[in-house]
Amino acid sequence: MVSKKTSSRIQLFVGILISLVFLYFAVRDIDPAKLGDKLSSGDYLWTLPTLLIILLVVFLLKAWRWTLILRPIGEFRVMQVFPAVMIGFMGNNIYPAHLGEFLRAHVFAKHEKLPFSTVFSTLVVERICDLIAILAYFYTAVFLVDAENLPSEMRQGAMALLVITIVAIFGIIPFVLAQEKSLALSRKILSILPEKLAGLIYGLIEKGSEGVQMARSPKLFLACLAISFLHWLLYGLMIVISLKAFDVVVTLPQALFLQGVTAVVVTVPSSPGFFGVVQWAFTTTLGLFKIDVEPVLAASFYYHLTQYIPITLVGLYYLKLLGVDVDEIRAEKNKEQPVEAEDPKPEEAIRESPRDISGDGTPEKPETVS
Predict the structure, then answer these.
(1) What is the pLDDT of residues 348-363, one digit of tens each?
(2) Mean pLDDT lowest for which of 45-59, 153-167, 231-245, 345-359?
(3) What is the residue range of 231's domain?
(4) Alpha helices (runs of H) in the chain, residue ranges in sequence order
(5) Quick one: which of 297, 249, 307, 276 has its CA closest to 37?
């Protein structure tokens, strides 16, 4: 039987191989001299600071959104969750198997003395909001872009993804409106499976159902959705600016179309940081608009690195500041039995009283991550 460590190494090797394949198809038709000229003559003077400012706003929006999703657990400030958010995205940049999500939940749960499973389950709502925003922009862009001979496979694939998303959303609604009854029904349905497999699946469903409870508040959910639409719009603006730096002018719908394709392909198992797949998404998608490949490839590296480098550096800074032991967390993930934070509160207590209650009946302010 293959050990967890060996399996992780195989997964990393396969991911790197997949990235190299995507990178090959992205660069196979380029003229290296033209690419070098584009990279050396790019307009970095105003585009670089602009991209970095937008990136900061995007991640502050991500942190703000997470404070709203965490509201059923407790009241948290943006700068309380910001370090964990940055550590999580840094983790996706340098560690395989999307370890970043696990890192983010673990760091925040440990610091705030909350159960890991409760914190981790809140990321379900985040993914739902992101998916809705990305697909809404993508489908709007599909009808607005002027690409000739848009491949039918791309339209069909997008339609299939839309159907899957709609089914998933309708599958989640019962857990929002009637959690206990839905869990009981799930347990009954899963009873036909082997006990161990049924227990594993039920555990995932139970954790996910905890995370979507904030959706019971339409006001909170709509606020999270609005933030998602705004921050993905800003990502689209970053694509426009990155291309403009190399004299490639695209419309916002074209950028949002590209953003949708990129968001899908980065879900493909690849190397940490998604190198290769992002470049393929840029060159293949904008190739539909008859744009030269060299400036597009240059823009793809620029767009990618202006996010990868600052996110990784800031994440590593917070990792060191908070004294996080990544090896320990990876070991816990490999065991698939994450250790709860020290002195966790029971889940029932968390639902009734998110934080310790002081003598005057008001929630005690959480400690600030510094």
Answers:
(1) 433 333 433 233 333 4
(2) 345-359
(3) 13-340
(4) 4-27, 32-40, 44-69, 78-94, 99-112, 116-121, 123-144, 152-177, 179-190, 195-211, 218-244, 252-265, 277-287, 293-321, 326-335, 347-352
(5) 297
The predicted-structure confidence for 121-139, as pLDDT tens digits, reads as follows: 888 888 888 988 988 888 8
Is the residue at 37 inside a domain?
yes
Which among 62, 180, 83, 72 is positioned nearest to 119, based on CA atoms? 72
Distances (CA, A) of 170 to 31, 129, 138, 165, 174: 48, 14, 21, 9, 8
Q: Decide if 273 contacts 249 (C-beta within 8 A).
A: no
Best CA proximity match to 265, nearest among 9, 26, 32, 10: 26
With respect to residue 137, please indicate whether it lies within any of the assigned structural domains.
yes
Q: Give the integer Cα–Cα distance in Å for 24 and 277.
A: 10
Number of domains in the chain: 1
Looking up tokens 């009637």 gives 178
